[in-house]
Amino acid sequence: MTTFPIQTLNAISPVGLQRLDRSVFDVGTDIDSPRAILLRSADLHSVELPPSLYAVARAGAGTNNIPVDRLAARGIPVFNTPGANANAVKELVIAGMLLAARNLYHAADYTRDLVAVQGLSGADLEKQVEAGKKQFAGFELPGKTLGVIGLGAIGVLVANAAQSLGLKVLGYDPNVTIKAAWQLSPNVEQVSSVEELLSRSDMVTLHVPLVDGTRGMINAERIALMPQGGVVLNFARGGVVDEAAVIAALDSGHLHSYVNDFPTEAGAVHPKVIALPHLGASTGEAEDNCAVMAVDQLADYLLNGNIRNAVNFPDVVMTRTPGTTRLGIFNENKPNMIGQITAALAAAGLNVSEFTNKSRGDYAYTLVDVEGEVRDELKQEILAIEGIIRARKIEA
Ligand SMILES: NC(=O)c1ccc[n+]([C@@H]2O[C@H](COP(=O)([O-])OP(=O)(O)OC[C@H]3O[C@@H](n4cnc5c(N)ncnc54)[C@H](O)[C@@H]3O)[C@@H](O)[C@H]2O)c1
Ligand SMILES: O=C(O)[C@H](O)COP(=O)(O)O
């Protein structure tokens, strides 16, 4: 029986790992020639990817730590786990709004300092508590406007939760999916530009992936559109915000605070920045959800060639038919690829039982079940077709 070595590059929840049958999957950190890599935020850009590799699975949402395009060009799907940690992030964003609105971070520091540094106690402590509290007076959420940029798995949950807390909510996402649109509260107003959203929002929260089109999207010009005393919440990725521009706006008093999950040297020590240590997905529930989803998708790909939730290839799923042999074929998305693949199968005298081909961007993926045995020579013939990237015979 074929066995699949899987290398883990981060701690993955055992709730997910225990779903991998150890008679089929060998799982560990020290694995030679892995068929798959399972990771969270480890940086794969600088890692030499072994020729043995069939797949990469990210137990989480963001894939900016993975060379997705380079892997696509080699016919290697990169799976992620959309929505599996969305509730955890939503709860932290709500907490972040309250931290900023009520100045909680500095307020807690103030009371700790009264005891730990000034050594106050009893009536003296009580006196300073009452004397000092006015400097931390905040604002309430109902009636304020929250702008949500990116209405995907997390953005929709944040928008709906904020709306139920009494905020007016604006949303911006030029590619909102039908699924997300169905989940979005009808009271969330969708606007047609980042500029309109910022100019009408007391607080803005970012829920977009870090890609070329979102890098530095919150910049000096756009911050200037926000009302005086605005709050920026960034639980997406540090790079979507021009942090120097945010700090300049905090220093000038234009912004009230910047709450984020991606500390930098400048941000971590700034009095108006609340920087958390990338905690968005760090709950037991989210870690279990992500691990289960990543492991299940990875195992189904290695065992059956099925692709679900890859960020660089389309979803292609077929149930297995007893007595058939399966081929998984990656090719460039150009004319006559299907014709050449089926011609090779026909020339080998094979009857096709089921065939699915889908494309996404520059690439396409085919799953084909044929009756009877597939000779290794046929696989080589398919690989020799110009535009074929990878072909895999997947035993039942
Ligand atoms: N802090 C954390 O621990 C943590 C946890 C999970 C996710 N994240 C980050 O949050 C991001 C979003 O996660 P998700 O699960 O909601 O992903 P998602 O794919 O479900 O949603 C992302 C949304 O952003 C939209 N989008 C893309 N470019 C945009 C643009 N220029 N303007 C407006 N909208 C745009 C997309 O159309 C999509 O609807 C992840 O890519 C990751 O970087 C961080
Ligand atoms: O993109 C994500 O899912 C989050 O940033 C979580 O990252 P982590 O798995 O390293 O906590």
From TrEMBL:
Q: What is this protein called?
A: D-3-phosphoglycerate dehydrogenase
Q: Which organism is it from?
A: Ornithinimicrobium humiphilum
UniProt domain ACT: residue ranges: 326-396
Q: Which reaction does it catalyse?
A: (2R)-3-phosphoglycerate + NAD(+) = 3-phosphooxypyruvate + NADH + H(+); (R)-2-hydroxyglutarate + NAD(+) = 2-oxoglutarate + NADH + H(+)
Pfam families according to UniProt: 2-Hacid_dh (PF00389), 2-Hacid_dh_C (PF02826)
Q: What does this protein do?
A: Catalyzes the reversible oxidation of 3-phospho-D-glycerate to 3-phosphonooxypyruvate, the first step of the phosphorylated L-serine biosynthesis pathway. Also catalyzes the reversible oxidation of 2-hydroxyglutarate to 2-oxoglutarate.
PROSITE patterns membership: ACT (PS51671), D_2_HYDROXYACID_DH_1 (PS00065), D_2_HYDROXYACID_DH_3 (PS00671)
User: Hey, which pathway is this one from?
Assistant: Amino-acid biosynthesis; L-serine biosynthesis; L-serine from 3-phospho-D-glycerate: step 1/3
Q: What is its EC number?
A: 1.1.1.399, 1.1.1.95
Question: What keywords does the record list, in alphabetical order?
Answer: NAD, Oxidoreductase
| Sequence similarity | Belongs to the D-isomer specific 2-hydroxyacid dehydrogenase family.
Give the molecular function GO annotations. Answer: NAD binding; phosphoglycerate dehydrogenase activity
